[in-house]
């Protein structure tokens, strides 16, 4: 049940990012909501599996930059999820620039934090 809540929160946060951030576009032949749900699933799985390792490996530079590099790790996870979604399912997102992915990672972090506070998900 906890994973389903995480998936829904991530999908909603990503949907808000697609809606707000220019340069993040849905690609593929499916409906937009299906692409957002699929991308949210892939991003949730990456956040559970790969992201902790990336955070551990980037810990020295994160400490030096006072935590700002954590946003770069989030941005890289967006790129990995986009690569997997586009490669495996031919559905996902198109990221125009690193700047738009960086802003999208900030939006996703803020919306996810707010949604987790509303649903009581303590991760």
UniProtKB/TrEMBL annotation:
It comes from the Bacteria. The chain crosses the membrane at residues 7-26, 32-50, 57-83, 95-119. The keyword ATP-binding does not apply. InterPro entries: Phage_holin_4_2. Keywords: Membrane, Transmembrane, Transmembrane helix. It holds the Pfam family Phage_holin_4_2. This is Phage holin family protein. The lineage of its organism: Bacteria, Bacillati, Actinomycetota, Coriobacteriia, Eggerthellales.
């Amino acid at each position: 049940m906890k994973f389903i809540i995480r998936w829904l929160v991530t999908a909603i946060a990503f949907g808000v990012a697609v809606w707000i951030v220019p340069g993040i576009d849905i690609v593929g032949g499916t409906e937009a909501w299906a692409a957002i749900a699929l991308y949210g699933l892939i991003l949730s799985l990456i956040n559970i599996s790969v992201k902790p390792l990336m955070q551990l490996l980037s810990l020295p530079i994160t400490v030096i930059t006072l935590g700002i590099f954590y946003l770069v790790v989030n941005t890289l996870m967006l790129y990995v999820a986009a690569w997997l979604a586009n490669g495996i399912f031919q559905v996902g997102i198109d990221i125009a620039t690193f700047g738009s992915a960086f802003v999208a990672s900030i939006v996703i972090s803020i919306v996810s934090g707010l949604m987790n506070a509303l649903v009581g998900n303590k991760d």
